[in-house]
Amino acid sequence: MLKTVNLALRTLKMFDDQNSTWGGRELAHEMGVNHTSLYRILETLENNDFVRKDFETKRYSLGPAVWELGMRYYSQLNIEKVLRPLLDELCHLTGESVFFTVLNKNEGLTLMVSEPENKVKFSVSEGSTAPLYVGASYRAISAFLPEEQQDEIIGGELTQYTANTLVDAGDLKKELQKIRDNSWSLSQGEYTPDVNAIAVPVFVHKEVIGSLTISGPMYRFSEAHCMEVLPALKDLSDTFSSILTINNIEI
C-alpha cells in the first residue's frame, strides 16, 4: 500500500513547467517503473480528477483536484497571515501568552502562539499536543464535543500531570458542564505547575474547532486577572469564528 501511495505521489510530481503533459509509456520509462503499474496509478488519479487524459493525444496532464488542494493550502497560508496579528495584538494588550489550539482527533494541537517579550512567560510550542481533559485550552474544546466523544476522552486512565490535574471522571463531567454553561474555561496549575490559564471555544458553522487561551505565571496572572481579560478573549474568539466561517476554512 505504501509503495502504491509513494508511486502515485511521485507520478504527480513529474508534472512541472517543463513537462506539463506525459504519455503513459513515456512517463513509465522516465520514472523507471513498470508501465502496467503506472497505468493503474494514472487510472486511479484520473478517476479522482488528479490527472486528465486527452483522448486524442493519449497524453496526461494535471487535473482540477490538484488545483483545489493548492487553493486550500494557499487559503490557509493567507488566513494565518490574518489571524496571527490578532493573536499578537491581544498578547501586547494583556502582556501574557496567547495561543490558538485546534481539535485534532482526541487531542488539542497548538497551531499558533504569541508570547510577550522580555518577561517571565508560559511557553508553549507550536505543533505541541495534549489530551483534551487537562487544562483550560483543551477542556474549552472537549466541553462542546458530543457526549460519546467526551466519554471516550475521559473514560480511560488519565495522567496526573500536577497535583491540581483533574483525573476523576465524575469531577471532569461536572467541569465540562460548567464550561458549557459559562462558555469559558479556567485552570490553575493543572497541566503546568504555577501557571494559570483562561480559554474560550472557537466555533465554525456552530461546531467547535478549537480554543483561544491566555496564560501566564500565577504570581502575575491571577484568577482575578484572568477574569479581567476574558471579554477581550471572547471578542477575539468571535473574530476568529467569523473569519474562519466566512472563508469556509476547515482546520
Low-confidence stretches: none
**CATH architecture verdict of the largest domain:** 2-Layer Sandwich
Determine the mean pLDDT: 91
Q: Terminal Cα separation, in Å?
A: 27 Å
The radius of gyration is 24 Å
Shape: elongated
* CATH topology title of the largest domain: Beta-Lactamase
Q: How would you sum up this structure, described in words?
A:
- Keywords: DNA-binding, Transcription, Transcription regulation.
- The chain has 251 residues and is of the alpha+beta class.
- The protein folds into 2 domains: 3-75, Winged helix-like DNA-binding domain superfamily/Winged helix DNA-binding domain (Arc Repressor Mutant, subunit A); 79-247, Beta-Lactamase (2-Layer Sandwich).
- It has 8 helices and 9 strands.
- The chain has helices at 2-13, 24-31, 35-47, 64-94, 135-142, 147-154, 169-182, 223-246; strands at residues 22-23, 51-53, 59-62, 97-104, 107-114, 129-131, 185-188, 195-204, 207-217.
- The strands form 2 sheets. A 6-stranded antiparallel sheet has the order 6-5-4-9-8-7, sandwiched between helices. A 3-stranded antiparallel sheet has the order 1-3-2.
- α4 (64-94) packs antiparallel against α8.
- It is elongated and about 70 Å long.
- The protein starts with a helix and ends in a 5-residue tail after the last helix.
- The mean pLDDT is 91.
